Amino acid sequence: MSLHILDLVQNSLEAKASKVSLNVVEDLAGDLLVITVRDNGRGMSEGEAKSVVDPFVTSRHTRRVGLGLPLIDMYTKLCDGRLEIQSQQGNGTTVKAVFRYSHFDRPPLGDMVGTIRTIVIANPSLDFNYCHAVGTQSFSLSTREIVEALGDVPLSFPDVIVWLGEYLKNNLARLYGGVTDEND
Ligand SMILES: Nc1ncnc2c1ncn2[C@@H]1O[C@H](COP(=O)(O)OP(=O)(O)OP(=O)(O)O)[C@@H](O)[C@H]1O
Ligand SMILES: [Mg+2]
Fold first, then answer.
1. How many angstroms separate the CA atoms of 57 and 51, rounded?
2. 50 CB under 6 A from ligand 1?
């Protein structure tokens, strides 16, 4: 799933969003995985928002088909879920993908640490918020808070990249109730 998440954030960036929020909810009690990406980009008209799960609808010019949303739509349906797109032209877009958590075909979340780190490091001026909940535990991170805490040190500074990876890894391990291996 992490690559699809990257796709969704990429769509937001292509829509010129300055603010993107990613929410991942592993609702164990409700047996749901809900991934939501909200942005303040250019948005879509009602018709556009309805038609984007059709692979032949795309605003890209290098290739005639867009694959991001149709694929995610297909995966959600395969897993007793759905893809919801809410958008308003000029006001941003919210894409919500719902899966049955325990469904046999549900793709694993994959490398969330690498994905989040890539988004943050590659887009230092993006106001990016990430919130991840597993059961009753949750964790959140905001690029703006990190940038403020860093002061003059740029996000791309090698030590910062290493720290961010460790920070994400430890917090995600905590969410899953795991112990982190210091030597890992
Ligand atoms: N967050 C968004 N804001 C505004 N428009 C969007 C957003 N996400 C998707 N779209 C519109 O929906 C179209 C289809 O998106 P999709 O991700 O399926 O394909 P793509 O981005 O065009 O191509 P690909 O993802 O394969 O590179 C986009 O071309 C864009 O016009
Ligand atoms: Mg796309």
1. 7
2. no
